[in-house]
Design brief:
25 helices, 21 strands, alpha+beta
Length: about 625
């Protein structure tokens, strides 16, 4: 059965573009032919090359997204290996189904696709056989292998298109979705604060604390932790021992003279005139007291903000600098020639010259250069320290024989103290196992570390005496919330029955019209909007969490006018998204059913072998 289509061609060209830039042949060159698949779907193998290409693509995509080259371990933390494996399983499932259906792609179809691939065209824009052979040779592929891959990919695309192309949700789906999104609510509500309580919250007794502690023991339980021994060396640790000669520091001071020496600056306004005569006349009237500077500005139909130059140095003013900086503060000087014409300058204030001497800057300069020098020292030592680890040295021996310092930490997700303040350490500690061999890793500040997992500590409750203050604070917050909720419940009938702006105790009743699901109401619980949209018109309800307590009455529920211009525009925007999501959901269900029927087998050892190439 032959077939082709524009969508299939685009998908094939995308795959071929990846192949010809060097992604092909991964398994052949790295596994020596011993491993050729990482599993199978039905009778169709999952090629090791396909998984390797998908994995490399995921790693490269993450690096591009983050703007830096990342390690395989970092990519794995982001789930790159799982996404790559899922991708090739889907592809192989479709390949298996195409084989079961007997789909085939004719020679002419293959030729038509090959001659359209840009990488195979010569300078004249036409297919060039030499370019074709050269590109395939670089990718480590023979012509037969490449053409087979086109047949497979095209057949796969045909199965995918048959499963999902042209599918759209039912006509009423968008109406239901638009109604859900665009519904509005009118509400009246009262926010209760701790100060609105009519009683003072008492201090908890020992018995109450014990009861609360036991009832909420999970909140005071340490999670599973990894007891990790590490050695650490940072530039800060070496900075006091690194020598920096004074000549280097003085040269740096001279190069940054603008940073340490700030000339006098003045706060200046400039009023430009069309001629020397007009400028001189204005200055004479000003000196005689006939007008003020503000009146001169107003007479020119200007405002003071139009004249304001801010704080400027003499060099900023060009030829006018000497005259302006010779004037008294405050005063008006001029007329002075400028590139805009003769001008009067009003000097409103002066900022004195600021000088930081070399001796005053020396501590900061010495620290900066010492840190930089320490980074280079650590970089030079790093390889030797790694060699010590490779030869069997323990972390304790590194502590004794090098500048590295030994430490221990109980690590768990969320801790960010000590060495765990470094994201590089957290990324390495999360997957650390007892089988991992210590090796040197770098930190963002130029430091290095190595670590060893000593023990996995099971979750355990912290003794009440160790967390008594935290338990007391949590009890007080919970008790305050309980009392506020009780008062709000007592006010439900009053809010339901009265159209008033104040309830007892001067509690203010606020109103909100046309509230949407996405609206944020300040000082309300995080689930406030969700709770309001689950209420019925006329209902009064208390909505409370650890942060706030609110009594709310739902006055009206309004469905959107689906025939309005706004809803029509929204429908036009949402229709393509709804179609694409529906087709994707159907396709995912179809692939899952095919895989379940065919059966899936994975070779974890082969997967690990591919992953190891990135370590």
């Amino acid at each position: 059965m032959a077939g082709s289509g524009k969508g299939a061609k685009i998908m094939v060209w995308g795959l071929m573009g990846a192949l010809v830039v060097g992604l092909g042949g991964f398994g052949v060159t790295n596994f020596g032919g011993q491993i050729d698949k990482v599993g199978r779907v039905g009778e169709t193998p999952i090629p090791v090359d396909a998984y390797a290409r998908a994995l490399r693509g995921e790693v490269d995509a993450l690096s591009a997204q983050l703007g830096q080259t990342i390690t395989f371990q970092q990519a794995k933390d982001f789930g790159a290996d799982s996404r790559a494996l899922s991708q090739v399983i889907i592809q192989t499932t479709l390949d298996n189904e195409a084989a079961q259906m007997g789909l085939s792609v004719g020679d002419q179809n293959v030729v038509d696709q090959i001659v359209e691939i840009q990488a195979f065209k010569g300078s004249n824009g036409q297919f060039d056989r030499e370019a074709y052979r050269f590109a395939l040779d670089r990718a480590g592929l023979s012509e037969a292998e490449f053409e087979t891959s086109i047949r497979v990919e095209t057949a796969r695309a045909m199965v995918q298109r048959a499963a999902a192309d042209g599918l759209r949700p039912a006509d009423g789906f968008l109406d239901t979705l638009l109604t859900y999104i665009a519904q509005k609510r009118d509400i009246a509500y009262v926010i209760l604060h701790p100060e609105d309580l009519q009683i003072e919250v008492p201090e908890a007794t020992d018995a109450q604390l014990q009861e609360f502690y036991e009832a909420n023991i999970g909140d005071f339980t340490l999670p599973e932790r990894k007891k990790i021994t590490y050695v650490l060396l940072t530039p800060n640790m070496l900075s006091d021992t690194v020598e920096v000669d004074e000549a280097t520091l003085r040269a740096a001071y001279d190069e940054r003279s603008e940073q340490y020496i700030s000339p006098e600056r003045r706060l200046v306004e400039r009023l430009v005139f069309p001629s020397d005569e007009a400028a001189n006349e204005a200055k004479d009237r000003l000196d005689a007291g006939e007008v003020t500077f503000e009146e001169l500005v107003e007479a020119r139909s200007l405002e003071l903000m139009d004249l304001d130059l801010g704080d400027v140095s003499a060099s900023d003013l060009g030829d006018a600098g000497d005259a302006v900086f010779a004037a008294e503060v405050p005063s008006v000087t001029g007329p002075v020639p400028t590139n805009l014409g003769p001008a009067l300058f009003r000097v409103n204030g002066a900022l004195p010259e600021q000088i930081t001497t070399f001796e005053e800057a020396l501590p900061d300069l010495r620290s900066e250069f010492a840190i930089d020098r320490a980074r280079r020292v650590i970089e030079q030592q790093s390889e030797d320290i790694n060699d010590l680890l490779a030869s069997g040295a323990t972390l304790e021996e590194l502590d004794a024989e090098t500048d590295m310092t030994l430490g221990q930490i109980e690590y768990f997700d969320g801790v960010s103290t000590d060495i765990a303040a470094y994201p590089e350490f957290r990324s390495a500690a999360a997957p650390l196992s007892e089988d991992d061999f210590p090796d040197i890793a770098t930190l963002s500040d130029g430091g290095i570390f190595a670590m060893r997992l000593d023990e996995i500590l099971a979750p355990r409750p912290q003794p009440l005496d160790d967390v008594r203050d935290e338990v007391a604070a949590a009890w007080h917050a919970a008790e305050t919330n309980r009392l506020l909720t009780e008062r709000a419940e007592a006010l439900k009938e009053a809010l339901a029955a009265a159209d008033t702006t104040v309830l007892e105790g001067d509690l203010q009743v606020a109103t909100m019209t046309d509230m949407s699901r996405s609206d944020f109401v300040p000082e309300t619980p995080d689930n406030f909007a969700e709770a309001v949209f689950n209420m019925e018109a006329g209902q009064t309800q208390v909505i409370s969490d650890d942060t706030a307590t609110v009594l709310v009455r739902l006055d009206d529920v309004r469905a959107p006018d689906l025939g309005s211009d706004e809803m029509k525009q929204m429908r036009e925007l949402m229709q393509p998204q709804a179609d694409a999501q529906f087709a994707q959901d159907v396709f995912s269900a179809y692939v899952n059913a095919l895989r379940k029927d065919a059966g899936l087998e994975l070779d974890q050892a082969a997967i690990n072998a591919v992953n190891a190439q990135y370590q």
